[in-house]
Automatic annotation (TrEMBL), chains A, B, C, D, E, F:
Protein name: Ribonuclease PH
Taxonomic source organism: Corynebacterium suedekumii
Binding residues for phosphate: R91, G129, T130, R131
Family listed: Belongs to the RNase PH family.
EC number(s) on file: 2.7.7.56
Any single Pfam family the record assigns to this protein: RNase_PH
InterPro entries named in the record: ExoRNase_PH_dom1 (IPR001247), ExoRNase_PH_dom2 (IPR015847), ExoRNase_PH_dom2_sf (IPR036345), PNPase/RNase_PH_dom_sf (IPR027408), Ribosomal_Su5_D2-typ_SF (IPR020568), RNase_PH (IPR050080), RNase_PH_bac-type (IPR002381), RNase_PH_CS (IPR018336)
Gene3D superfamilies listed in its UniProt record: GHMP Kinase, N-terminal domain
Lineage per the UniProt record: Bacteria, Bacillati, Actinomycetota, Actinomycetes, Mycobacteriales
Every Exoribonuclease phosphorolytic domain range: 15-145, 163-229
Length: 243, 243, 243, 243, 243, 243
């Protein structure tokens, strides 16, 4: 833990990469957002469909589900397309489920009517943090999609809950670093993804000692840094939404 | 065939939609292009991989293959993701094969060494003509990828052949129209896709009487209009490539 | 383009292989035909099923769909069975879709009631032209199946439209040749498949420069030869049907 | 068990349907046979491939494997194609395995060299007894394929063992009937398939009480009748092979 | 066939391995049994579900279906998990179908109401005879599940029929041996599986000459020995059920 | 958070269910353990295979991978078998990956030689906590498998690292509860799974606000309780292993 540790891109340890949120990135889905955390670029869309899955039928409530995917050329070395392999990788499933849980924390399903919102997060360019960028971007797409439903008079109330954002923190060479790019992520001792509400509450935390374990103090330090990042991400979402 | 036929977007019958080609759209693949034919937007990438498929091993020649796909939210109504369905639709297969054949006409495989170029065409937004835009955009991505190989000294000669482009023409309410958007495409009597070289030769023509058949004169008229569009597309490619 | 070009089987350049059509080849489906273009032999059946796919429900119209497949031992070297591989090849999908489009041009769906006709084209022996033989043979099976429906009083009118046939033409060593066997097909510079009505109108044309491109004059010449072949195929269909 | 029981097609209880064996049914595979048990028609081919599966590599021995399949229109009501469903039905697997075991009893793998024989049995028309006809027909195709290997000097010895045949017997309305067509098979109390060598030894017996169980005496009676049928099938094979 | 043949585990030729049946092995399914034939251990469950498959809808009758599977570490060398391979092996299908047929002979579907019983046989440890142990154990699970239905007043009558059991017999070095463990099974000349009712009637017999064929006398001898084993298995079932 | 909150099974809030670990549960794999957390019962095996996956070839290091699965009748309502559905559920993938990461923290791959350890966790009976029980049980199976490798002289050093265990904690009606059974798990506001080493360090933490979010103090309280449970689980592992 020498004092001369510097990050490849020159950022401070607790500094986010530059975050850009572009609304209306495409025009067909009700909400369509391009989010960028540095070089990581994810297209997040929210599409509305009438009706709900079988297990929700007749409940009077809505549903939200999410799918995450990498374009084959998003990564440094091209990866085979999952549709051609005929099956979805475990990692893809895992992240799709995470995004779905996170976004369900941002919507009051009881106010959505029996409608389903499909979140799609397609990574155009990957440089670490694709799952966290997906969540932060999908919230903005969700907000836009719900506004469309409200404008159309489909939902009378306000199903949208306050912002939900996500960021990664890691222990790299013993230093707690915020928002890891691929180069840091791949050699981090510990990788922690935090999904947080505007109020600073956790929706999900997933910490993994990829190359080593970690103690309570390190967890505390990582959560502090994550919280700082999340506050900034909420601000970026609000600026993008103009609220 | 009344004289008062007008196109929804006000174009002349033989007028292309606005074509935009953005090189370097993403940074990981050797070639990465966003191509737009009006509202149709396709990300075309060319990734280079050492080695060739089994049937080319030891030939001293390279190979080029292509995959086409629609993002689920690219269309007006969201379509299920093929990776989740576990199988690729016939339409996807058909277009992937067309793109591959078209681009193989733009590369001299014997000068590529035993390397494989993977073309990926991912439709971000669909409004008709996604297969033709894919071909035109992929040529530019291919050119950039081959330049990378040349700069790296991997290929000594010039494997890139002159431009290959593609456009659709259709018979709509009895009128030959160039470059159909979705609205026209879905009600066209005849749909013709033409893949052409800079020299005005055909690489592929596919004409289908979706709601009616067509005669020799109509074919001739459609090919004339397609040729006009193709000349403009070659110009757009060259402008983008700065050649 | 020397004058001493001869075809391996001694045919004239614009001569069809011997065409044989055997109706009632099997007894379970409403229409069952064995069609032979020389050594290419395809079993074409038309099966009638009550009801239509979801997207046609309530339309009062019928539907027609087609599936093409090669038996594993149909080719010179045995090919793995697609059912065992668990997925259908792109080529199979592409041809199935072509056959379906071609045959839908031979039936007035609005006169079929809400019934579905399933066309199955199973190649028993392959020697080039399997997709074109499939279309020509399937028309005869379709005619027989519609006659069954009429005899049963299920369809009051005449859903059957005039003959639809298909043939391949190619550019082999610079010569336009009709109805290519495998040996010619595999080395042809250009391969053109033409689906035509009795009236000489195109239902579909698909021309591919597999090893080279082609110009307008060559296209014209190829279409002339294809038209000659198609006229003969219509005659063969009519002879088989006794009309 | 009234004495007035008659079979729908007028046969004696212990009488086979008419058996026809056509060699050289198609020309690409080394052996190709059309076998008919009455209205049941199966195309049986034997294709030779150099090399053996991994578990046989280096053994100096050959291998034989078999695949059985129904064409979709072979049955009275069309059945979905397994390649399109993306999976093979249990029944298909079961019969493929049975045919493989039966035919391996007809070949001395140690005299085959490291070659694989692929047996394909594709049912063109189904009227009961498709698995037994497959086995009987495949033996003839196997004999032809081995003759090809011998003529080519690939196998010095005689890998072909004496004939293997198969027939079904059933208990229908309490009567032991030989070679059940579909109508009898579907209502039989007991269904027994017997695979037998020329010497009258069993290679496989599979008896199932579909709608009832059966005792030792009934088994004995059924085996007697099966043995009669098998003798006749061996004679038919030998006649077809001219030995 | 020397007189000094001894079995690896010292059993008499016609002696079963030790059979243990543990009811209530798990608590969620209506019937749950662990059955052991020596070292072979199978968990057999019977789960009840309201409703029947489509082909039984409206019949007033119930249905019974079965699935057999090996845990990956059940065998000496771990086998890949079928769910991960994405397809079920032919052997698995074949045994699942056998178990289903056998158990349907133990239930009067007409007295079950429109309910479905799902039999699951999961092999925890494999040492030969897994399919036969599955059948014998599943009967006990079925009995328990039907008792639950009766206690709940769902079925007024008695759908359970008398015991069905299964055992393997084989010809090992020319000796007829009962209940083969893996070591004997893998080198047996003939393998015969017999499914029998309490009354000594056959539900199913499947005899295979894996490395040789067999004659009528050998079949008779094998059936005699199988019958002895089956009587003992029925006694074990009844002891377990306390009837 | 009334003081009268009681758990359905009468446990204290920070009390584990009864934990039982049975070594040598089956005999084929190198390590085989049945672990029970109350009514949750998981069979955990560790199988050793020579060689490593491609990405580890030539590294001199070993690999460990894990697969988790539910038997269909493990749950209250039977669930369809993943092998029959032809695809693995996201939840299964997610847990398999978690178990793999957790167990890789318990083995020094550099001391394993180029061998692969396959962990299989098959849930026989599910009552909440199946993923945490899988991890705790798999460690014991891993220890036994490594001992086998050491006894065989395959690994000279000690690849086994100190114990790794896992437990769930949840917020139920506002109370922090240890080791949730299904009934509590399904209605918990927050669900936290903790994987911990003997030294009290985290290998992985996954906290999800299923029906609500949670703050830093609640996280701290949950981690305290989890730590208590983990200490007891390590003691149970050591008792089982006799160390």
């Amino acid at each position: 833990m020498t004092s001369d540790f510097t990050r490849a891109d020159g950022r401070d340890l607790d500094q986010m990469r530059s975050v850009r949120i572009t609304r209306g990135f495409t025009s067909n889905p009700a909400g369509s957002v391009l989010i960028e955390y540095g070089n990581t670029r994810v297209m997040c869309t929210a599409s509305v469909e009438e009706g709900v899955p079988r297990f929700k039928k007749g409940s009077g409530e809505g549903w939200l589900t999410a799918e995450y995917s990498m374009l084959p050329a998003a990564t440094h070395d091209r990866m085979p397309r999952e549709s051609m392999r005929g099956k979805v990788k475990g990692r893809t499933h895992e992240i799709s489920r995470l995004v779905g849980r996170a976004l369900r924390a941002a919507v009051d399903l009881s106010k959505l009517g029996e409608n389903t919102i499909n979140i799609d997060c397609d990574v155009l360019q990957a440089d670490g943090g694709t799952r966290t960028a997906s969540i932060t971007g999908a919230y903005v797409a969700l907000a836009d999609a719900i506004a469309v439903l409200q404008d159309a008079g489909v939902v009378p109330g306000q199903p949208l809950l306050p912002p939900v954002v996500a960021v990664s923190v890691g222990l790299v060479d013993g230093h707690v670093c915020l928002d890891l790019p691929y180069e840091e992520d791949s050699r981090a001792e510990v990788d922690l993804n935090v999904v947080m509400t505007e109020a600073g509450k956790f929706v999900e935390i997933q910490g993994t000692g990829e190359h080593g374990d970690f103690g309570r103090e390190q967890l505390t330090e990582m959560l502090d840094v994550a919280e700082k990042g999340c506050r900034e991400l909420v601000a970026a979402q609000k600026a993008a939404l103009g609220v």
